[in-house]
Amino acid sequence: MNAYRKEWRSTLVFGALYLVLAHTGLIAIYTGVDNSVRVLGFPIHYFLAIVLGSAGVMVVSILWNRYADNLEDEIEMENGKAPRTGDAEMPNAAALAREGAR
Amino acid sequence: MTEADWQIQNIWLGMGISLAVFAMYYIVALISNKQTHTSADLYVAGRSVGPMVNSLAAASTWMSVATFLGVVALIQQLHLPFVYMWVQLILSVPLLVLLYGASLWRVGVYTSVHFVQLRYGRTAGYLAAGWMLLIMLMYMVGQFIGIAKVFEVLLGLPYLPSLIISALVITGYITIGGMKGATYNDAIQMVIMMIALLVPLAAILKQMGVSGYWFPPLGYGDMTDALLERIPTFFDLKFEPRFYMALFVALTLGTLGLPQLAQRVLTSSSIKAARRVVPWFCLWVGLMFLGTYAMGFAGVYHFALIGETLTPEAADKTTLLLNLAYNPEWVSAFVIAGVLAAGVSTIAGLMIGVATIVGHDIVGSFKPDMPDVKKLRWGYIALAGTGVVSLLVSLDPPAFLITSIFWAFGLCATAVTPMVVLGVWSTRINLWGAILGSAVSGALYICLSPYVFPDFSVGNGLIAKLGYSVALITVPVGFIVTILGSLVAENLFGEKASGELSRAQELVEQMHGWATVTRERYNGVQWLLILSALWVPVLIWGLQPW
Description:
Chain A is mostly helical.
């Protein structure tokens, strides 16, 4: 898989993971709640909401950091391999956009 | 319960600690001022901030007076649904960096408005600036009023002088220090906040006999049964599924578009440093949020034990009431310093955000070739002006500016997030679609909310006031109109549209780190149409009566 596809796929996967971890309320709606099932003294749906919505999001962020760093290296490698002839050489995008914006 | 119950007896103790921390903020600002030589230093701290400091500063910008006061009361009033509402706010910075923050860093912009200007041109930039200034002003006025109320309610000082003096003092140190001063001060303030919330909370839980007192964020499970005895419905979901869907649509998508958070990421020293901000941010914010829920629990438990029912006004002060009941008075004075730190750190981020949009993005667009010395001077004027104007507005704020900040998040999700995120991920989004989508959906959001035309308001009560019921309609409209408007305009405007597309292809590919332009990446239409189609059922769901 080339780096471009990996970028799309990883953004969708990590984005979806974030949403699931911090929106367990939507899951609880469908699974129902039971205050007698406890973890550390808390009803399980409350425990999952606060732990996944903090530590869970942090763990996914660490994984995403690693993945994004590797992906950036892959993009750099592809940049190194890319043929320069035929393709437009990348100008300074900010300057170009500024010119267009004016 | 009266005001005397939540005011500390020794006012000089509270004043002394408050003056000491403000003196420290001024010292940091003065040191930072000596290191501010260019407009880039003033607006984005010269892009020199490491991940640890930046994560603390970003977390601090996110915390507000409400973190210590209102949130604890709302947990007691709304119970579990409020926790679900609050939990997902942690996604703001992770999604921001994932979806567009890293790309914006690469292109070297100062704010999201700056990006919109580069991507779509001046008109779209002004439109985005208008929405963002409105959102930040709503946020800032609330914080100025909140801080003055802290002085009035907790220390017993008169409101108006408290508002004027605190606003001028805050404006002074932020103007002197610029983004560098604000960043280092925000980081210090975050440390103060964490200590002021978590350490006294551990002492409170210990005295309540809670076995897990040594780790307050998760150590209060012992209280669950007592809580359920007092409020059997505390852990019930209460609202229909649409409410939980609205949390994603209005809050998750709204907070990821907040300009003051985006600007924090843009101060990073490298793109890797920008990414490293995310896990650290989650750690700090996670600890604070977990501590806040614990404080809410402890409040319910404490007042159940003594058999007292709190009025909403008293519930707001639960954090103070618990500290005054269980800890020495100097601890409560330090907690007040924590509340003030939460308020001023939010104001700092907002003031710099507003000043950058006004001084750099708007004034700079009229005079793009202005020498940097002049830009710096305009920057300082914009910073001081932002503080003074916010103070004047706070003296007698129009009603629409002091609605809930959650309503402003919904506006951001509607009018700002689609044009920014889609502009980073698709070259096919153009200025016509972006302007149409933002203007139509933003205007619709305002018109359908209960504050302008109450008769046309969608939904009732809390869900309407917080903007949730409206956002379920206007956010899908924002995305769909931006996408379809862009694709229709592409066919309508022929050569002009081709020029736009060509420019977008060059900018977008570089934003993602590519060295050459293939004009094929981020150029697909299919996923845009699928995304539009996915929003249709949400829109239909939102149109059903609540």
